[in-house]
Design a protein that fits this description.
- The chain has about 800 residues and is mainly β.
- The protein has three domains: about 90 residues, Nuclear Transport Factor 2, Chain: A (Roll); about 130 residues, Nuclear Transport Factor 2, Chain: A; about 400 residues, Beta-galactosidase, Chain A, domain 5.
- The termini are far apart.
- About 5% of the residues lie in helices and about 35% in strands.
- It has a 15-stranded antiparallel sheet that branches.
- It is globular.
- Pfam families: Cu_amine_oxid (PF01179), DUF1965 (PF09248).
- Its cofactor is Cu cation.
- It is an enzyme of class 1 (oxidoreductase).
- Its EC number is 1.4.3.-.
- GO terms for molecular function: copper ion binding; primary methylamine oxidase activity; quinone binding.
């Protein structure tokens, strides 16, 4: 056997915000020559350069060196210890303006100049700030400049202030607080904090949740947790003791310890709590202890059938799509598009075409938010904005045969952080898959025709703390495109209190001795820059409405008929929309071009496959989020396309939710969508997927993907003259009686010498008298004697060499101090 890929040496990256070190390696897939009969054509190349590609290591290092020289006045350091140091934080490719990109793609213009987008941490005026700059053109020459990057942001500023200077000291302060009340934690929780080993399974750790204060600055609530033995289940092990910290000053030496919260009661300080513990009638809650109940694997149970492996999907003849690995360009049955990645957003797709016509300029994730609710100081103000931690940076190496089929193509990505480049191998997969249900079928009197439902998927999995998000871009043979997200991992659970004032099941359900779930909303935002048959588009709400109407053909017998009809409403200004009740409206992006039948070409936007309609945020005017995620307030939005509004969110929104660097409400500000001299009707759609998650005991230990997946689909609406999947799908027609012709077969179609081509004869039986086939195949079929190696069914993981994943542990390391900020009195 031979390896399809050589392992790559992992590159260590010190991640300031995650404070973790990760090592990555490429898994090798071992396939025999018999199995890999066909492969991508060596001559296949992209028609254009991937102008959205991430910077490579050489480009990034050149940018670092340029900045160190150009910004000498800032005394940039290569080894930052806190946000009091000035340093280059991140480097990535700056995506070109659409105006310039389209001129290159369709207008014959020269290739777009390449630029970098950088963030620099700078301590100025006694506070830490992050500044955005552009550096270019690249490669670095005497013409290269660094300039403030402010035009895409609402206020025109290129900076945001960090509310925290040194989060290492926050963690140390938390540990010291826990140490000072070790007698209390031992009495109430049965353990004490282990300063030397935070992973001590017999110890405790303290996790701070920060929140904004009206008068300025931050305060914290600390909650005690138990580390998990081996499964990473720390978010299932909260303990029932909370401590409030006054941290409004940037100087941690001025911080003070305030109230304690235990079993529904507030105590002014540790002395009041100690006195209460020693008083008669004090009620203790049981400790939340780890055990087999948090294990994610069961190696012991043997129900009937488990001794056999499940069915597996294989691809004996190689891929049917074409892939240019260098340009990350993919072509499959009419679909063509470019792929790129970045640290914050993960996978982004550009210039999506179908059958040579434009469909979308761009589709990609903007932000992944989870917002909790609860009656304790932790859950009551908890929310996460995961692009800050890095949906691309935390998209780790995929498991062949599990995350993706063994036969998939796997692509690497790179991120550039604190002067280091990290290569994350095999963290994006591309594969074709045949569904368990058909694309189309029909049974006529003497025949049955069936077409297999085969689709192309681009997949990545981002593990941000406790949750794993599987993100799919799915392409169908008819020209439909689906964006789907499924979630798994550990829930962020609450401690179950036993006080008499507790309202059972108000925020979740009891799922273990001392554990309760917390309801939360996952709202994950994507951008789709629509170019349906070109850039000139408009959005129409096509409503299905009841109507009472008279028809001449009804005559006097039925003077009025209760029926329904279609009514179109033009969307004439930027606005947010929700999925209609009873599915009573279609949201259609129309082109100004028409198909052969005089109908305008369009794509319908619809809530897709999964657990019901995709949601928007339940909470109205969230106290925690401020203005940082206004896109979460509706299911989808329609906006003007503007080069000055490339994104609907920014990772740094997490640092200042009440004055975010991108305020979506200032993007979706009601501008007219009617054509004018300064607007050519180029539309952008922002849409949400996610779930209203009310975890139950069935989420222990992990949430299951089939119960958490939601999607949005973009479906052709008169875009084609006829269903294009007829020419690309594989299937069969079974003729039940050779003497009876039905379903559209013409007699000469059974003649092997007919001009329409030779009939497929494999696996079919001829009628003895008519010599006509009973089984007729369209598209390829499998041959006898096919050899399949074991690795095609159960991949060999010897080539999977990752020794550690740099998962941002949102509960137990310094990155957590950016937790959430709740504006409170």
């Amino acid at each position: 056997m031979e390896s399809r890929r050589k392992p790559l040496v992992a590159i260590t990256s010190v991640l300031l915000f995650t404070l973790l070190v990760g090592y990555f390696a490429v898994p090798s897939l071992y396939l025999t020559q018999d199995y890999a009969v066909k492969s991508h054509k060596p001559s296949f190349t992209a028609p254009k350069q991937n102008i959205w590609a991430e910077l490579d290591e050489v480009e990034a290092q050149d940018v670092y060196e340029f900045l160190l020289e150009d910004f000498k006045h800032l005394n940039l350091t290569r080894h930052p210890k806190s946000l009091r140091d000035n340093f280059v934080n991140t480097v990535e490719s700056l995506k070109p303006n659409k105006t310039d990109a389209v001129a290159y793609l369709y207008g014959g213009a020269d290739v777009v100049d390449r630029y970098a987008k950088v963030s620099i941490s700078q301590f100025t005026d006694g506070a830490p700030y992050f500044f955005y700059y552009t550096v270019g053109p690249l490669p670095v020459t005497k013409d290269t400049k660094a300039e403030p990057y402010g035009y895409p942001f609402n206020h025109g500023r290129n900076w945001i202030r960090s509310p925290i200077v040194d989060f290492f000291h926050i963690q140390q302060f938390s540990v010291n607080v826990a140490k000072n009340v070790s007698d209390i934690t031992l009495e109430l929780l049965g353990a004490t904090v282990n300063e030397n080993d935070p992973n001590d399974p017999r110890g405790l750790v303290a996790f701070p949740r920060s929140f904004r204060v009206v008068t300025g600055g931050l305060n914290f609530w600390l909650q005690m947790y138990r580390p998990s033995y081996s499964s990473g289940a720390r978010t299932l092990l909260p303990q029932g003791l909370y401590v409030k910290i006054d941290a409004k000053s940037l100087d941690f030496e001025e911080w003070t310890v305030g109230q304690y919260y235990y079993n529904g009661m507030i105590y002014a300080d540790e002395h009041k709590l100690r006195a209460a513990i020693e008083s008669p009638g004090f009620k203790k809650t049981p400790a939340n202890l780890d055990g087999p109940w948090t294990d994610t694997e069961d190696f012991e149970s043997t129900p009937a059938g488990r001794e056999l492996p499940p069915p597996a999907v294989i691809q004996p003849y190689g891929p049917r799509y074409q892939l240019d690995r260098k340009q990350k360009y993919i072509s499959w049955f009419g679909f063509e598009f470019f792929l790129t990645t970045n640290a914050a957003q993960g996978v982004l797709l550009y210039d999506i075409r179908f059958k040579g016509e434009r469909v979308m300029y761009e589709v990609g994730l903007q932000e992944a938010m989870a917002h909790y609710a609860g009656d304790d100081p932790m859950q009551g103000g908890l929310e996460w904005m995961d692009s800050f931690f890095g949906m691309g940076k935390d998209a780790f190496e995929l498991l062949p045969g599990y995350d993706c089929p063994a036969y998939a193509d796997y692509l690497d990505s790179q991120t550039h952080d604190k002067y280091e480049t990290t290569t994350i191998p095999n963290n994006v997969c591309v594969f074709e898959y045949t569904s368990d249900f058909l694309l189309a079928r029909h049974s006529a009197q003497y025949s049955t025709t069936a077409s297999r439902n085969t689709y192309l998927t681009v997949r990545s999995v981002s593990t941000v703390g406790n949750y794993d998000y599987t993100i799919d871009y799915v392409f169908y043979l008819d020209g439909a495109l689906e964006v789907k997200v499924r979630a798994s991992g550990f829930i962020f659970a609450a401690f179950y209190t036993t006080n008499s004032d507790k309202t059972e099941d108000e925020y979740g359900h009891r799922v273990h001795t001392a554990l309760s779930t917390s309801m939360h909303d996952h709202v994950i935002n994507f951008k789709a820059d629509m170019d349906v048959a070109g850039p000139k588009n408009d959005l129409v709400r096509m409503a299905i409405e009841p109507v009472t109407k008279s028809y001449s053909w009804d005559g006097p017998d039925v003077p009025k008929r209760n029926t329904m009809h279609l009514v179109e409403y033009n969307v004439t200004e930027e606005t947010g929309l929700d999925w209609p009740k009873n599915g009573g409206e279609f949201y259609i992006v129309y082109s100004d071009k028409k198909n052969a039948w005089g109908e305008r070409k369009g794509y319908r936007i619809t809530s897709g496959t999964g657990m019901g309609n995709t949601p928007h945020l339940t909470i109205i005017n969230s106290t925690t989020l401020g203005d940082s995620a206004r896109w979460a307030e509706h299911d989808l939005w329609v906006l003007r396309q503007k080069d000055s509004e490339p994104r609907g969110a920014d990772p740094f929104n997490f640092l200042e939710p009440f004055d975010p660097i991108v305020n979506f409400s200032q993007l979706a500000d009601g501008e007219s969508l009617e054509p004018s001299e300064d607007y050519d009707q180029d539309l952008v759609i922002y849409f949400n997927v996610g779930a209203h998650h009310v975890p139950t005991s069935d989420d222990i230990p992990n949430t299951l993907m089939h119960t958490s997946g939601t999607s949005v689909m973009f479906v052709p609406h008169n875009f084609n003259d006829r269903d294009p999947s007829r020419e690309s799908s594989q299937g069969v027609r079974i003729q039940l009686d050779g003497k009876k012709l039905s379903g559209g077969f013409a007699g000469e179609a059974y003649d092997e010498d007919a001009s329409n081509g030779e009939l497929r004869t494999r696996h079919g039986k001829r009628d003895a008298k008519t010599k006509k086939l009973k089984a007729h195949y369209f598209g390829g079929t499998y041959e006898k004697g096919l050899k399949v190696p074991l690795e095609a069914l159960e991949p060999n993981f010897e080539g999977y060499r990752s020794t550690m994943h740099a998962v941002p542990d949102l509960t137990f390391n310094g990155s957590a101090v950016f937790g959430t900020w709740r504006k409170e009195d």
